[in-house]
Specification:
This protein is an alpha+beta fold. It is 43% helix and 11% strand. It has helices at 31-40, 61-69, 88-94, 102-113, 118-122, 125-139, 147-152, 154-164, 171-182, 211-226, 234-240, 251-264, 267-282, 284-292, 297-308, 339-342, 378-395, and strands spanning 43-46, 55-58, 74-75, 144-146, 313-318, 322-324, 327-329, 334-338, 396-401, 406-407, 416-418, 420-425. The chain has a five-stranded mixed β-sheet with strand order 1-2-8-5-3, with helices on both faces. Bound molecules: protoporphyrin IX containing FE. Protoporphyrin IX containing FE is lined by residues 68, 97-98, 109, 260-261, 264-265, 268-269, 272, 310-311, 314, 366-368, 371, 373-377, 380-381.
Length: 426
């Protein structure tokens, strides 16, 4: 076991870094902690309160990428989206695509992979533009509003509703499930905090959230309606196709796949839009540059994603002893890839704290990088961001904050809960 003190340089001691402490994240990402670790303790042991046993933090881009790619050594099968240490029963019940390795993972992923290619998605652009226009026209009818509530929150879930073939009027319910699950450590989002004893009855549910039960039920109703039909929505594909390994989806496989699709692309895209807008309120030169040179938008979207890093981290579990930067990661230890820290690594990004919409190359790890779990919805998220900001920039000349930005209390999701703005129309 090591701590920041064991760097061997007494001048660089810092013993107070604790990335399991959610309160370190209430004012936004703990950039100083990430920076310190990346420089002085790139493989840092972070103790945790019982019943957990602690985890290794990786903060350098190269290490995050190496671990993300090596699923034989660093497995997702003991849980990828939570630091919680799950017992075999919990693992079995909660297991989804994202917590599966090897051939079964590839087979499950292939069920829907083609639906998320740029080619398949290009058919959605007109729909997305229409949806964006409706969202923006409603929001911009006033000059002051909460950007999260009026613009970012609805848009991604309405896109997913379309992909899943879900009626528009259910969008609010889906949003609330997403909030309750991803925001499972924030009292504003859930009355059953995952880090409290009240969540114990829900220990077998994803995110320890009762919302998962409601989402399962909803997904099952959709499945029953679509089974045996000819629909081309994602639910129909899940219920009417067999993975290429020949093993059909069990009820549980389906439940968790449905739930993953619902939550994975919702909060993440929402927070990316909010973070990008926040950056444009702060770095006005970049806003003006995008007005002058709208053709930069494709490049800018990559910077929006790097800047935002809406998922702070994913976790792996070491399958054998590994030496890294002088530390021994033991078989069974949790290893955390801090995507947010890696996205500010000066070894890869010149002047990493500069928001630069012309940054190329931009090898961010916001969607993972080169590993088997690379975000299935990456192209969809890129398309949503591009369309949203093309439409926004065409309508909005200037934007400023009119109050405090509130962040989600979480060390998993780097989210913005509210962001009051004043806009001047173009
Ligand atoms: C800006 C928005 C998004 C971000 C930041 C994001 C981030 C991520 C990350 C970090 C991973 C894991 C990568 C790894 O372990 O290597 C992931 C996986 C995944 N994402 Fe996204 N995501 C976003 C949008 C979406 C959307 C729109 C969908 C569509 C439904 C989606 C569906 C998934 C799925 C299904 C996986 C699991 C893939 C697998 O295990 O093979 N994501 N995402």
């Amino acid at each position: 076991m090591s701590t920041a003190e064991s760097t061997g340089n007494p001048g660089l001691r810092r013993s107070d870094i604790d990335l399991s402490n959610l309160d370190s994240f209430v004012d936004g990402p703990p950039w100083d902690d990430f920076e310190y670790l990346r420089h002085h303790a790139p493989v840092h042991w972070n103790p945790e309160p019982p019943p957990n046993h602690g985890f290794w933090s990786l903060t350098r881009h190269a290490d995050v990428v190496a671990v993300d790619r090596d699923d034989r050594t660093f497995s997702s099968e003991r849980g990828a989206v939570s630091l919680e240490e799950l017992d075999p029963e919990q693992l079995e019940i909660r297991k989804s695509l994202i917590d599966t390795d090897g051939l079964r993972h590839a087979a499950l992923r292939r069920l829907l992979q083609r639906d998320f290619t740029p080619r398949s998605l290009s058919g959605y652009e007109t729909f997305l533009r229409g949806l964006t226009a409706t969202t923006l026209d409603a929001a911009l009818s006033r000059s002051e509003f909460d950007f999260v509530k009026e613009v970012s929150a609805d848009f991604p879930i309405r896109v997913l509703a379309r992909l899943l073939g879900v009626p528009d009027e259910d969008a609010d319910t889906l949003i609330s499930w997403g909030n309750r699950m991803f925001g499972n450590t924030d009292p504003d989002y859930t009355d059953v905090l995952a880090d409290s004893p009240e969540s114990e009855p829900y220990r077998n549910l994803p995110f320890r959230s009762p919302a998962a039960l409601e989402a399962y039920e909803y997904g099952r109703r959709l499945a029953a309606e679509r089974r045996g039909g000819k629909g081309t929505d994602l639910v129909s594909k899940l219920v009417n196709n067999t993975p290429h390994d020949g093993v059909p989806l069990s009820q549980r496989d389906y439940d968790n796949y449905f739930l993953l699709l619902m939550v994975a692309g919702n909060e993440t895209t929402r927070h990316s839009i909010s973070h990008a807008m926040l950056a444009l309120t702060t770095y006005k030169d970049q806003l003006h540059l995008l007005h002058e040179r709208p053709e930069l938008i494709g490049v800018a979207v990559e910077e929006f994603l790097r800047w935002a890093t809406p998922i702070y981290q994913f976790r792996r579990t070491a399958m054998r002893d590994v030496e890294l930067h002088g530390q021994t990661i033991r078989d069974g230890d949790k290893v955390v890839m801090w995507f947010a820290a890696a996205n500010r690594d000066e070894a890869v990004f010149e002047d990493p704290y500069r928001f630069d919409v012309t940054r190329t190359p931009n090898e961010h790890v916001t969607f993972g990088r080169g590993g088997p779990h690379f975000c299935l919805g990456a192209w969809l998220a890129r398309l949503e961001l591009r369309v949203m900001f093309e439409e926004l920039l065409a309508r909005v000349a200037d934007v400023e904050l009119t109050g405090a930005v509130r962040h989600v209390r979480s060390n998993f999701i780097n989210g913005i809960k509210s962001m009051p703005v004043r806009v001047s129309l173009a």
